[in-house]
Design a protein that fits this description.
The complex is a heterodimer of chains A (337) and B (271). Chain A is α/β, with parallel strands linked by helices and 337 residues long. Chain A is built from eleven helices and 13 strands. Chain A folds into two domains: 192 residues, P-loop containing nucleotide triphosphate hydrolases (Rossmann fold, 3-Layer(aba) Sandwich); 70 residues, Alpha-Beta Plaits (2-Layer Sandwich). By secondary structure, chain B is an all-alpha fold. The chains are: A alpha/beta (337), B mainly alpha (271). The complex binds adenosine-5'-triphosphate and magnesium ion. Chain A: GO terms for molecular function: ATP binding; ATP hydrolysis activity.
């Protein structure tokens, strides 16, 4: 079976008029146009199977939203192809749109001046949802997303978190086959985030809905996404599971040593650089030493043995790098594996 | 998902009613806009009436003939502007990226644009157009036959389509240029200034341009000439004059196709 979503060599260039400088610059700009080309998406390829939940990650301006806009048929690609269950999102817009649901955290799709309930009704009409299905879905969403309290209020009066929940319900009302969530947890408090995550998890569980999620909150990713695609400057840096991402990019571990006070002197000794086999002592405070080492260069059992031999140790632990740290390093240093 | 026309029409009503409800939520604004619309259009008409009544004839057309032409154009304009007024707001929708939403749903984007909002001040256009046409049609020297009555209905629709086509074409520029206000202003004024009077008074060159490059003549001048039995003044043949509504519809069809084609230049926004 071929993939549900296949993106192949996708490119999007934005052209911007480059203003002339100096005297009469704006007048010259008006008549002779020079363009500056910005390649927001630069040859992205990936394939996503039916039922997958994929985190699409990357720093600000990486090209995530632009990719999603091409997958949803908002903008036309400059080059390459996108196929969603065989459909070209731009040319076969109505068919593709009928089977997808989209939430842009930054922008609402609800009718601003009407009660939330009205928006649901209109969405139901546009997608031709049968009355029975409509009632059932609505009931489920009101329950899962706790919409009851504000469903009869005009959208313009809703708080950000309430509006976002309304938006996600509206996007799912027709039971789309593919769902794109572009920063659905932006600006939500911890409780609202949790509710949103549970909802996404629930939706994904049955395996009938394919979900592509972008977010800057890595807790979303750790909790939800078995697979991540990481891009920067419009190119794919990594495509695989979260464990693999850590293994590829974060090759260092941290040994945390809790030292006991010396029996004779009563003082807590400090770990010396000579005893850590060339690893780096990151910090040493109140009897806790953090030693960072490259797992491929230094065998952890040797390191532990050396520390044990030279110091009175109360406790030892090895800290795996967390996703946050990994991603921070990739974003800031532009690392390649 | 290709919808049958009937279904699209019922969706159109559903969305239009929703937009109306949204607008009437601001009741004070609603009333004020209707009143303003009437006052604005009414004062425009009063002005024209005063000017027109100073002349016995313009380009051999009598006062009542010109009034008929003038109000026929107003009527065609109203028939276009009532359902399609939101087309003027397209550049704003594009600039702010709000057009995104219309591309996400399995429903014609233009239909979503025009049902996005109801503007109450256009009620003023309608009321004044209908009132003035009511007066003008009784005063005008037309030998009414069933064929002419049918032609009148088609001419109003065709005239609406002819003006609408040009406005739609201008709005399609939004996808590339983001600001179209000044182009709309120009087009509106061309239709208002040249479309409301017997076109031949502006000379042959102008008449030719406003017949063959921009369909100003087909909005009201040509149909009014047919109805008033003045096809002799026209530069187009009587057969073509009777076909004026069809020309309006052809323009609209072509404009719509171009509009859809221009949509590919939509770039959305950065956020
Ligand atoms: N409509 C547009 N016109 C011009 N340039 C654009 C447009 N949309 C995006 N860009 C540019 O394309 C690049 C990618 O933008 P995009 O919105 O896809 O990033 P992103 O990965 O979603 O970032 P963020 O995490 O900040 O949302 C940026 O450099 C942006 O300035
Ligand atoms: Mg984005």
């Amino acid at each position: 079976m071929s993939a549900l979503i296949s993106v192949d060599g996708l490119v999007k260039e934005f052209r911007k008029v480059k203003p002339h400088e100096g005297r009469l610059g704006s007048l010259r700009t008006l008549f002779t146009r020079r363009y500056e080309v910005n390649r927001a998406v630069d040859g992205v390829s990936f394939a996503i199977d039916e039922g997958e939940l994929v985190g699409y990650l990357g720093p600000n301006g990486a090209g995530k939203s632009t990719t999603i806009k091409m997958m949803t048929g908002i903008v036309m690609p400059t080059g390459g192809t996108v196929r969603i269950s065989g459909l070209d999102p731009w040319r076969e817009r109505p068919c593709n749109a009928a089977q997808m649901g989209v939430v842009f955290g930054q922008r609402t799709q609800l009718w601003w001046d009407l009660p939330l309930r009205e928006s649901f009704r209109l969405v139901g009409a546009i997608y031709g949802v049968s009355p029975a299905d409509y009632r059932e879905s609505l009931e489920r969403f009101v329950d899962l997303l706790d919409l009851g309290e504000f469903i009869d209020r005009p959208v313009r009066q809703l708080s950000l978190g309430q509006r976002m929940r309304g938006d996600i319900a509206a996007a799912m009302l027709h039971r789309p086959r593919v769902v794109y969530l572009d920063e659905p947890t932006i600006g939500l408090d911890v409780v609202a985030k949790d509710r949103m995550r549970t909802f996404v998890e629930e939706t994904s569980r049955a395996g009938e809905t394919t979900i592509v999620l972008t977010t800057h909150d890595l807790a979303d990713v750790e909790r939800l996404c078995p697979r991540v695609i990481l891009i920067d400057h419009g190119r794919v840096l990594y495509d695989g599971d979260v464990q693999g991402l850590k293994a590829t990019y974060a090759t260092h571990r941290e040994l945390v040593v809790h030292l006991a006070p010396d029996e004779s002197t009563g003082r807590t000794p400090a770990v010396r650089a000579a005893d850590v086999l060339g690893a780096e002592i990151v910090s040493q405070e109140q009897g806790v030493a953090r030693i960072r080492f490259e797992a491929s260069r230094i065998a952890v059992q040797h390191l532990i043995a050396s520390v044990n031999q030279n110091y009175p140790v109360r406790d030892l632990s090895i800290v795996e790098p967390d996703l946050e740290g990994v991603v921070r390093r990739i974003y800031s240093e532009g690392l390649t594996p | 998902m290709n919808r049958p026309f009937k279904e699209s029409l019922s969706l159109y009503w559903t969305l239009q009613k929703a937009a109306l409800r949204a607008e009437t939520g601001y009741r004070f604004n609603f009333v004020l806009l209707v009143v303003m619309g009437i006052v604005y259009q009414g004062s425009g008409i009063a002005f024209v009436w005063v000017i027109l009544s100073q002349f016995d004839s313009i380009g051999s057309w009598t006062f009542s003939d010109v009034a008929f032409l003038y109000s026929l154009r107003l009527l065609a304009h109203a028939v276009w502007i009532v359902p399609f007024n939101q087309v003027y707001a397209l550049d704003e929708l594009v600039r702010e990226g709000r057009f995104d939403v219309y591309l996400l749903r399995p429903l014609n984007p233009l239909l979503q644009v025009i049902t996005g909002r109801v503007r109450m001040n256009i009620l003023g256009d309608v009321i004044t157009a209908v009132t003035m046409f009511g007066f003008a049609v009784t005063a005008a020297d037309v030998d009414w036959t069933p064929a002419k009555a049918l032609y009148l209905v088609l001419a109003v629709l065709g005239g609406a389509a002819a003006e609408g086509a040009v406005v739609l074409l201008v709005s399609a520029l939004s996808f590339r240029f983001l600001h179209t206000w000044s182009a709309h202003f120009l087009v509106d004024n061309v239709f208002l200034l040249f479309g409301s009077y017997p076109l031949h008074i502006f000379g042959t060159a102008t008449t030719w341009i406003l017949t063959w490059t921009v369909p100003v003549a087909f909005v009201a001048y040509v149909p009014a000439s047919v109805l008033l039995g003045r096809t002799g003044d026209l530069s187009v043949s009587p057969v073509l004059a009777w076909a004026a509504p069809a020309i309006g519809f052809l323009w609209m069809y072509a404009a719509y196709r171009i509009w859809v084609r221009q949509m590919r230049h939509y770039q959305s926004t950065g956020t």
